[in-house]
């Protein structure tokens, strides 16, 4: 019996080992399968994993802010809530619809199709106010989720709107600084790829993705406000097609205000015609008219072809150049250099041009920065056009001497006048002061840069005193401010009618440009209107705007006492009606 | 001669598996727990309780001389049969197919099938050791064992738990095989089982779906094949070293039953091939020790029992892993020690206790 038991046990053991062996093979099979599933790549599985985990959501990460020079926000992202539906998970559809309709004030029939959709995910509304969004979130409705999103917000509405540009619905920069600074403002990942669970709910925090930068402009919100106020007031009054006003610091090249008329509110850009989004100050190129006259004088003085005491016979208002006749508005006999500028004599500058010659005149214009981009890098910025001297006819030099036959943009004029105000030193214009990372590190800083000395300090000073006379007793009287010396020049340029391709009797570019206080300039201010009606001279339309802006800017700077400011304002309003000063016309024959 | 030392390695490997299981249960259930019970630790807490209770049972069964079960076999069978019958009437649903497999007792739910597996193995081991050479006899040896076992298998089948029927049936056949039953009987049994399995599978819709999904999971990836495809995704994401403990995404409702039947995919995803190899190695080692205990046992009862218990845990583990890896159709079987589930864990730990007792008491037949 015991023998049997022993053999039996032995047989059992052998059979246990057999089973053991079989299970061992099973185990090896599983090991191999493990290797296969883990290591051998399976595109089908990988694609599925990618597709199901990642919800490439049209959610944009937070965009950087734009501030003025003093840190006041001009453009910023504010948190909003977007409401998403997961139609397949919604339990009580009627309840969900009635609650959503009540809180969001959306008609029931607009919610129905989205709730009955067979998609995993469907937006109901995007970027709504936090309190309404939170109200929805607090209901904890099954199949309804809330996602935090950002909306571009311009707290000052229209203020500097045309410079800032706007950001579209999908967080794409549409223009202006938003576009030119897009690489700084937007986060490096332009889209949030959120992870989601199998129920379609997102669990990646969007806050983590901030890699944007903040931008500090050189603009001063208060000066911007002042410039816009005066620009708009007069723009509306004279029904101008468009206009702009700029303030800069002539010693640093910093732009302090860039106002446009008409303007738009970038918060609701879609409510405005595209024409009102335009930043005329940088984009428009136009014939500057008489405001250009100082440059032929500067060319003459710098080249020593003419000197301060020189006198010119102004032909009593009619002077034939080639087969055309140059005219002054009032007939003048002999005028000094200063008087030519003061009375804005076309014949006078034509005569100066004859002495200077095209080489020096052309070189001076290029040195002042005309016919080339300003270096600001603003989208669609024009560079104006000065024909090359080799292509000039005699009449061209004459026309250019009084600012016709060439085009400039506002920035170039501001830069060139700043040079006169800054002892002949041309400063590179600055609009972006500095760019900082979210953590605060400065990644870019624009410090004042002297590009070159264009004219000597003496020439610049001579020009300044001539320009002081323009405001003191010449065409720019309406720009005068009591207690301050103002250097400036009016401009009234006939516009070319695009249909007839000849100068138009009715449409003018009216402008005034000047700096104040003339001896130690704080501000250079340029005011331009396109086609103001019914009056159109720079001295009547733009000079008072210059004055209004300058006065308040000085007061803001603490340079002017309040009562003087107020007295001057009423004075300017009285005067503007009576004065009609036309500084030039050129007649095509 | 009593050998007082028990197999420390077996206990160690068991505790290690239980530890891995607890960590993985927490990792894979936290989100679901938070969502369903508003308590991230819901399943972890319950699992820790089961582990504690299971370990208590392990130390109790370890100290009970296994010979004592010879006398307990029949009362145990009666108890389990009544539970299996009761579950058909007062049972509660759960799991993916919504079948009734649980009995609520006090605050806990009991899954009688899990205990039935151990009871049947006890019975078969007892019957085989008692019948000795008679097992070669069809009427006296083979048939009685087959009839009693079949009663259990039918009761389990009544709960629509084909997976357990298949596993337990296979283990019984393995036990019959090692006892020296004629191979003709076994082959006949297999021959009879195949048509029966075929009918059982293809007459029930969800089983047919599972088989079809098993054969071509991509074709059925939105319904019956969803779980296995998601399991593939988990393994593939895991790669060699895994995405990191707690970092897995599949448990975010992609993978159904992530903390129960499919916990092995979560291991694959979070711990990678290395983790999977480790778990497989631990089970291999467990089986190696278990079979060694069987081989060293000097009396047939201990040998059969040790073999049966080792198969119960090891074979079920292999089947579960094969299912999760798409080598076998989905069955609804847990991975011993790792899957969340009180009855399974307590039963497994009790079984290990018995195994440990056999290990220190090798052969006092005489």
How would you portray this structure in words?
The complex is a heterodimer of chains A (589) and B (366). Chain A has 18 helices and 21 strands. Chain A is α+β, with helices and mostly antiparallel strands and 589 residues long. In chain A, strand 8 (242-249) and strand 9 form a beta hairpin. In chain A, helix 9 (221-237) runs antiparallel to helix 17 and helix 11 (293-302) runs antiparallel to helix 16. The longest helix of chain A has 37 residues, at 2-38. The relative contact order of chain A is 0.11. In chain B, 69% of the residues lie in helices and 2% in strands. Chain B is built from 12 helices and 2 strands; from the N terminus they run αααββααααααααα. In chain B, a hairpin with a 2-residue loop joins strand 1 (103-105) and strand 2 (108-110). Classes of the chains: A alpha+beta (589), B mainly alpha (366). Chain A binds chain B through residues 4-5, 8-9, 11-13, 15-20, 23-24, 26-27, 29-31, 33-35, 37-39, 41-42, 44-46, 48-49, 52-53, 195, 197-199, 203, and chain B through 31, 132-133, 174, 177-180, 218, 221, 229, 232-233, 235-240, 249, 252-254, 268, 272-273, 276-277, 280, 283-284, 287, 291, 294-295, 298, 300, 303-304, 307, 311, 314-315, 318, 321-322, 325-327.
Describe the SSE topology.
The complex is a heterodimer of chains A (589) and B (366).
Chain A: H1 2-38, H2 43-53, E1 54-56, E2 66-67, E3 73-85, H3 93-104, H4 108-115, E4 122-128, H5 130-139, E5 144-153, H6 161-164, H7 176-180, H8 182-185, E6 193-195, E7 213-217, H9 221-237, E8 242-249, E9 254-261, H10 280-283, H11 293-302, E10 311-313, E11 318-321, E12 324-327, E13 334-336, H12 337-343, H13 346-367, H14 394-401, H15 410-421, E14 425-427, E15 432-437, E16 442-445, E17 450-453, H16 457-473, E18 487-496, E19 503-516, E20 523-530, H17 538-557, H18 562-575, E21 585-587
Parallel strand pairs in A: 2-7
Antiparallel strand pairs in A: 1-6, 2-3, 3-4, 3-5, 7-15, 8-9, 8-20, 10-13, 11-12, 12-21, 14-17, 15-16, 18-19, 19-20
Chain B: H1 8-37, H2 42-63, H3 69-90, E1 103-105, E2 108-110, H4 112-131, H5 138-157, H6 162-179, H7 183-202, H8 205-215, H9 226-238, H10 263-296, H11 300-324, H12 342-360
Antiparallel strand pairs in B: 1-2
Helix pairs in contact in B: 1-2, 1-10, 2-12, 3-4, 4-5, 4-6, 4-11, 4-12, 5-6, 6-11, 9-10, 10-11, 10-12, 11-12
